[in-house]
Every structure is written in C-alpha cells, then in structure tokens.
Amino acid sequence: MNAPEHRAGADAFVIAGKAYSSRLLIGTGKYKDFDETRRAVEASGAEIVTVAIRRTNIGQSKDEPSLLESVPPSKYTYLPNTAGCYNADDAVRTLRLARELLDGHDLVKLEVLGDPETLFPNVVETLRAAETLVKDGFKVMVYTSDDPIVAKRLEEIGCVAVMPLASLIGSGMGILNPWNLALILEQAKVPVIVDAGVGTASDAAIAMELGCHAVLMNTAIAKAQNPVLMAQAMRKAVEAGREAYLAGRMPKKLYSATPSSPATGLIAPKS
C-alpha cells in the first residue's frame, strides 16, 4: 500500500524521504467510534496517523468496521505502531503483520513498554527490536525515554526519527524535562518528535518552540471533552510554536533598562 503524495511548502516536515505540510501526528485510538476519529483527524490537519495494530481493525476482522473506511490510507500516511508490546519479539512480529496487512508498508512506529501501569519505554528491548527491524528493511520511528544517550544510539542503529516522551503516556503532564529534550535536539541528525504526555495546546506549542520537528499525540485529543475542537486547537498550537521557533524569540532578562519607544526627539513639556 503506497503512502499518499503530499504537497509541502518551503518549511516541510520530511520523514523517511517524504515531505509533509503538517507537523502534527495523531493517533486513531480511544475515540468513541470511527466517525469521531475521522472528524478529529480532519480537524487536526494531520497527514500521518498512528494505528495500534493489536487494537484496531485494519482488515484482520473481516466482519467488523475497519479504520480503513473512515481514515483511508489513500489520503493519510499510516504509521502502524506496537502499542501493547512488552518485548522485542512481540513488537517485531506485530510490525511484520502490519506490513502484510498494508501491502508492504514499511514506515512504522516502534514502542516497547516496560510495564502496563506507567507505560514507560523498556529501552533495552526497544534497542533490540530496532536493530532487527532496521535490518529487516523497516523505516523505524521509535518511542523512547528522554535519555540523550539512548536517543543517539537509536539514531546510530538507523531509526529515521527518535520520539522521546514529554511525560508518561496518557498523563497529560506536559513537558517535564525540557533540558533533556534540548540535549537530544542538539545532537540529533534525524527528526525529533515529542511523543506522549501532551495534555493541551500550550504543551504542543512549547515542544515546537524548543525546536522539536513535530508532535505526536492521541489521548490529549481523544479524551478531551470536545475531541474535534481540541484537534483544531492542537493544529493551531503546533503551527504557532513552529513559527515562533523560526522567528527566534527575544532573550529573557529580569528587566530591561532600554525603553521600548524612542528616547530622542521627544516633545519638551511647557515650562
């Protein structure tokens, strides 16, 4: 199954050789039904959507509704992920199944979790799975901790993007350690995408202002009181954060002794 061709401008988001206009990637799980999923995806402007192969029907169950009908892969780039996998072998097996279901699709999101409560990544199993998948011809975008050393190693293995968490999956706590993200960004030669922990639009904007190349989210939109409206807000936040990063913010200082308006040529008061 071929990914759709996207037209992108001068500031395109490029992943695995393809250019996209949107820097917001969203998940397709946790919505009340596929219709709400479709409306949220459309409102977000996202061009890349993640799909949990173990939890979402994309053809495995012939007699049940399929995501393919509501969010057609002719319009969006599918990013199969390994949500629910706790070891490298299960993750590799899941993505090989996804490749079969999606007619050879090779762009995937790898996540290997450490436990079912925190959903923190198991970096040892993640590294092992990444090595196998890259050797097997997959283009791997990888969920990981915000450890700069691990992120660098995943890039060296051949992953096409590293995706450090901002905080725990589904927590909505936002970016808890911007300094580690800055270290990852400083050394990375592949896209860095914040994955997990975003709770609201300001979190997405901050990630982009830090210089992250994109933001991926699911729960922040799907579990909002109005998912479609939140998807629209996230779209604007990512765009605004990216523009602020490109513009270059003014330096921070405790106070400024320089007036913001001209200090010369003032009208003298009457004596």
List key phrases describing it.
single chain, 9 helices, 271 residues, alpha/beta
Describe the structure in your own words.
By secondary structure, the protein is of the alpha/beta class. Helix content is 35%, strand content 15%. The chain contains 9 helices and 10 strands. The protein has helices spanning 34-44, 67-70, 88-101, 123-135, 148-157, 178-187, 201-209, 219-222, 227-247, and strands spanning 13-15, 18-20, 24-27, 48-52, 77-81, 107-110, 139-144, 161-164, 193-195, 214-217. Helix 1 (34-44) runs parallel beside helix 9 (227-247) and helix 3 crosses helix 4 (123-135). The longest helix has 21 residues, at 227-247. The mean pLDDT is 90.
Identify the quaternary structure here: single chain
The Rg value, from CA coordinates, equals: 21 Å
Label the structural class. alpha/beta
Give the distance, in angstroms, between the N- and C-terminal Cα atoms. 82 Å
